[in-house]
Amino acid sequence: MLNKAQYTHFIKQKAQELGFMYCGISKADFLEEEAPRLESWLNQHMHGQMHYMENHFDKRLDPRLLVDGAKSVVSLLLNYYPEEKQPETDTLKISKYAYGTDYHFVIKDKLKTLLDLINEEIGEVGGRCFVDSAPVLDKAWAKKSGLGWIGKNSNLITPQVGSFYFIAELIIDLELEYDGPIKDYCGSCTRCLDACPTDAIVAPYVVDGSKCISYFTIELKDQLPQEMNGKFGNWVFGCDICQDVCPWNRFSKPHQEPAFNAHPELKNMKTNDWQELTQEVFSQLFKKSAVKRTGYKGLLRNIQFLQQPPEND
């Protein structure tokens, strides 16, 4: 009969073998600290048209409402930092996380394998896999389990690694040994606040989601607001600015996941190629990519918005 320490070691070891960068574990409990923050954020309408954020408020704060008898939240990080990036000039840019195959598919498969391995080794363990598609506060759980601290840009940051990774969870009804949080190492740095072209980081540790370039280019289904004209730089899907300027990301190392490699033609795309993008090329380039989330018409809207001349003052 294995004990808690052995269960914990087994899960962390198998997570590493499956390619996860880090694994941290915390007790499945009510997120007391996050409750007032989430309520305030929603009350200030910082979620914009992401109405799904208003749903399942209680479940977002208590994993025991998502999984019966939940005892542990196993948080996992999967690196997506690319070896080859898009050029800085004469192209339009998509967020690095969307270069390759949609992460939902890649991570879900790894999580299911991990859960199967747990069941084979330990016995019947009830649980669910979560990849950014259910009411789970990923960053809060990762922070709680010591995988990093929440930075001033509201991203999880990990020492010696940075922040270019996906966060996923297994919520299971097995008691394990729990990790504790680490300290915040942002210090007096304000590079992310200073660099955000739409002033979406309204205060240290507070991001107004409805002002973020990622929100406009992915989540917003209406026409893009004219007051944002000229502020997107060359971003047409997502935005990495607040991560690119973060000093901790100088430690980022290229991922080892072939599925996250970009389509070979993506890095050769010039601005002109983007402007002449056809439905056929879109389907070929982004066949299994997260870019499909905005769709061909949405991406075209974003590309055309960048071509508009700025309004006169």
UniProtKB/TrEMBL annotation:
The 4Fe-4S ferredoxin-type domain, residue ranges: 174-206
Gene Ontology BP term (one): tRNA queuosine(34) biosynthetic process
Binding positions ([4Fe-4S] cluster 1): C186, C189, C192, C246
Chief location: cytoplasm
InterPro entries recorded: 4Fe4S_Fe-S-bd, 4Fe4S_Fe_S_CS, QueG, QueG_DUF1730
Residue numbers binding [4Fe-4S] cluster 2: C196, C212, C239, C242
Entry note: cofactor: Binds 2 [4Fe-4S] clusters per monomer.
Annotated Gene Ontology cellular component terms: cytoplasm
Location of the active site: D132 (proton donor)
EC top class, as a word: oxidoreductase
Pathway: tRNA modification; tRNA-queuosine biosynthesis
Subcellular localization, as worded in the UniProt entry: Cytoplasm
Cofactors demanded by this protein: [4Fe-4S] cluster; cob(II)alamin
Signal sequence residues: none
Function: Catalyzes the conversion of epoxyqueuosine (oQ) to queuosine (Q), which is a hypermodified base found in the wobble positions of tRNA(Asp), tRNA(Asn), tRNA(His) and tRNA(Tyr).
Family in the record: Belongs to the QueG family.
Protein name: Epoxyqueuosine reductase
Species name: Pontibacter arcticus
